[in-house]
Amino acid sequence: MSDHTHGEGQNGNAVPAPRDTGGEVIRVRKGMFGANNGGDTSGYGGLVRTVTLPGAASRPYGGWFDEVADELEGALEEQDLLPENAIEKTVVDRDELTFHIAREHLVQVARTLRDDPALRFELCTGVSGVHVPGDKGRELHAVYHLRSLTHGRLIRLEVSAPDSDPHIPSLVEIYPTNDWHEREAYDFFGLIFDGHPALTRIMMPDDWQGFPQRKDYPLGGIAVEYKGAQIPAPDQRRSYS
Q: Rounded to whole angstroms, what are the CA distances from 235 to 40, 43, 213, 218, 222?
């Protein structure tokens, strides 16, 4: 997964705390960027880092997190949807709350979060694509950032899909601001948002092959001329690996 940047949390500490050891180890990354084809130009080829996804949290979550979780679960039950079928796990990591949602229930959960008076997450500030090659069967992730203007709260939804079936329902009908964000995630990660009104590339040419922000996308590029000097493409630069 691409690294998320975390700001100051509820405890006022701007430095991220170490993650719980109960997380799920998905890979061991070597070098600064995990390049495995000799393309690590950072000088940190000897760096070895374990990549761990945070594990599910247990109650009580703390603060208003329990209130949001209780209200969401109760609202889903009122719609005859068992919360455990929709919410795969709830993660509290570095003072942030994330609900991992089964993709087939994403639309219903998002609409509930928007419309329920006790929740009122009226704004989705975007969706981020993530590629986690070591997360077998869940290689592609979509992360939604939801803000409640009414209650002054911020949460995340995270949905996963296998690389072999990269389909996730579009939320443009519920959050129109997601229109171009979903197009960007499609363009760079290959996530297919079913129901999007015009799912086309937004950055790359229409005939571009592959998805440039996936971790397995080959390192390469176009040589650039800068003030008379020729800067080689990344795959032609010196390697320290």
A: 9, 15, 16, 9, 9
Amino acid occupying residue 77: E
Token pair in block for residue 120: 């009122």
Please calculate the CA angle 160-166-172 and round it to the nearest 5 degrees.
80
Beta strand pairing call for 192-194 and 140-148: unpaired
What pTM was computed for the model? 0.81
φ and ψ at residue 231, rounded to 5 degrees = -95, 115
**Residue closest to 154 by CA, chosen among 7, 56, 12:** 7
Nearest Cα residue to 62 out of 92, 82, 34: 92
One digit per residue, pLDDT tens: the chain, 241 residues?
444 433 334 444 444 445 545 688 888 887 776 666 656 666 777 888 888 889 999 999 999 999 999 999 999 999 999 999 999 999 999 999 999 999 999 999 999 999 999 999 999 999 999 999 888 999 999 999 999 999 999 999 999 999 999 999 999 999 999 999 999 999 999 999 999 999 999 999 999 889 999 988 876 666 777 787 887 776 676 665 5
d(CA 69, CA 57): 12
User: How far is it, in rounded angstroms, from Cα 239 to Cα 235?
Assistant: 9
